[in-house]
Specification:
This protein has one domain (3-226). It is built from 9 helices and 2 strands. The protein has helices at residues 3-30, 33-42, 45-49, 53-67, 90-126, 130-157, 159-170, 185-188, 191-226, and strands at residues 77-80, 83-86. The chain has a two-stranded antiparallel sheet with strand order 1-2.
């Protein structure tokens, strides 16, 4: 493969790694019951839905089990205002079916991106194109940094506007439009919850990418100092 081909492979693999990292951050955040506990307390969710924290966290665990396809039915009966009641309305159940499909697709994309990136890295290092991959990794991170920076800037100007655009893009019905007066789901995950979650995920994602960028730079410099010498000196060159 010519030099351009290796660079192209490395750049595509680097770009594929970015959504894999981002979606892993999403999975990490929504799998933490401690995070949900903090957010529920922050937004007075217990009062909004008339539930105890332990019962609400149980509901959350079951909801996440549904998203991970570990239970077939979403509906959960929990104590609400002293009565055992089903938590979700029919509209909320329909919406969560769409959310589950989107979540599953995201995890499939994440896994596919990871497999592709790993395969590309193995091939490139086996062919002594490690330096090429690290350089294209830095380029890929730079492109994603620019895109994420633009997205964050837009979200800071009007989170609700772009939150709505997200739903219009990924959902083909209006089941996501919930009324906090009658729908309990919107009361346990209000807009503030989503904005907190989005900015946390974005911050961790950017932090991980920055570490990868710096790590790649350090490795490139170490290779340059210790291992990359002129071919006439008889040393092994890692391209």
């Amino acid at each position: 493969m010519k030099k351009f081909g290796w660079r192209f492979l490395g750049f595509v693999a680097s770009l594929a790694l970015m959504p894999a990292i981002l979606l892993t951050c999403v999975q990490w955040r929504v799998s933490s019951m401690d995070y949900f506990r903090e957010e529920y307390a922050k937004y007075d969710v217990l009062e909004r839905v008339d539930m105890e924290m332990d019962d609400l966290l149980y509901l959350t665990e079951e909801m996440m089990a549904y998203l991970y396809d570990k239970r077939e039915e979403l509906q959960v009966t929990v104590p609400i205002g002293g009565e055992e009641l089903p938590f979700f309305s029919e509209k909320e159940i329909r919406h969560m079916v769409d959310v589950k499909n989107l979540f599953s697709a995201g995890m499939d994309i994440r896994n596919g991106c990871l497999v592709f990136t790993l395969a590309a890295v193995i091939v490139m290092f086996a062919k002594k194109k490690g330096r090429t991959f690290l350089r294209t990794l830095q380029a890929g991170i730079g492109v994603f940094f620019a895109a994420c920076g633009l997205l964050v800037a837009l979200m800071l100007t009007d989170f609700n506007k772009y939150f709505t655009q997200f739903h219009l893009i990924f959902f083909d019905n209006d089941d996501w439009i919930l009324d906090e007066r009658v729908d309990r789901l919107i009361n346990i995950v209000p807009e503030g919850f989503f904005s907190d979650t989005a900015f946390w995920i974005g911050g961790v994602f950017l932090g991980v990418c920055l570490l990868l960028f710096v790590g790649a730079e350090i490795i490139l410099r170490l290779w340059g100092r210790k291992y990359l010498t002129e071919e006439k000196n008889g040393s092994v060159e890692i391209h």
